[in-house]
Amino acid sequence: MNINNYVIVDSLEQAYRILIDDKKNMIIGGGAWIKLSVKDVNQLISLDKLSLEYIREDGDYIEIGSMTSLRMIERHPLITNLCDGILAKAIAKIMGVGIRNLATIGGSIMGKFSFSDILPVLLVLNCDLKFYKRGRITIDEFMNDKSIKDDILISISIKSIHGKSYFKKVSNTPLDFSWVNIAIIKNQNYSIAVGSRPGIAKLCYKAMAYLNQEKDITDQVIDLVLDKAIEELELSGNLRASQEYREVLVRTYLKRGLKQVIK
């Protein structure tokens, strides 16, 4: 990887001006996955001086600065108490503590990494993202919008909700990337997301709509939910796992997860 210049900016405006000046300029988060993103960088922009490392309550919401490390998030009481601790549990599955001390929540989101264990959880939590120019949008909008590149993520906002949750990462070893990962939340409604399809994480809209209209969740209902999820997820194969194996994993763990949160 080649980096021509490293710039520590004093303001978001300065960072934004440098970012849009050249397509080869980029923001660095923690840098844990940067080699997976690009080969050549003209100006690498650091936000370290902008005080974007924080976790705080804002009314009914938890606000997390984009430069906050995954380890800090994993251990914070506001996160461990959030919806059965699903976000903390997912972060705990990411590599080792050294990587989690380095990687930031902002870099993990902006990378849109297909192997991400965090993105399925953030989708079911229905969090909002605050950008410097674009303003506030949902993470679902962000995941489906390929145009949001030349902007700076400032913070993540999650509604402080209570409910049952389930997270499952399937991988060869605890330190390996996911073959598939599943996040489920049951609050007033059910939310389901699957990542490492091997595409980026995705909400199961049809499965959720069907599940949320049913009052009596029987085994037959769950089986139909699984069918709808498999249909819309567009699973495929890669070097880590075949399409057929991913379908087996999703059916198995999605069923277990639904039964766990239904109890």
From TrEMBL:
UniProt GO molecular function: FAD binding; oxidoreductase activity
Occurrences of domain FAD-binding PCMH-type (ranges): 1-163
Matching SUPFAM superfamilies: CO dehydrogenase flavoprotein C-terminal domain-like (SSF55447), FAD-binding/transporter-associated domain-like (SSF56176)
Origin superkingdom: Bacteria
Coiled-coil blocks: none
Protein name: FAD-binding protein
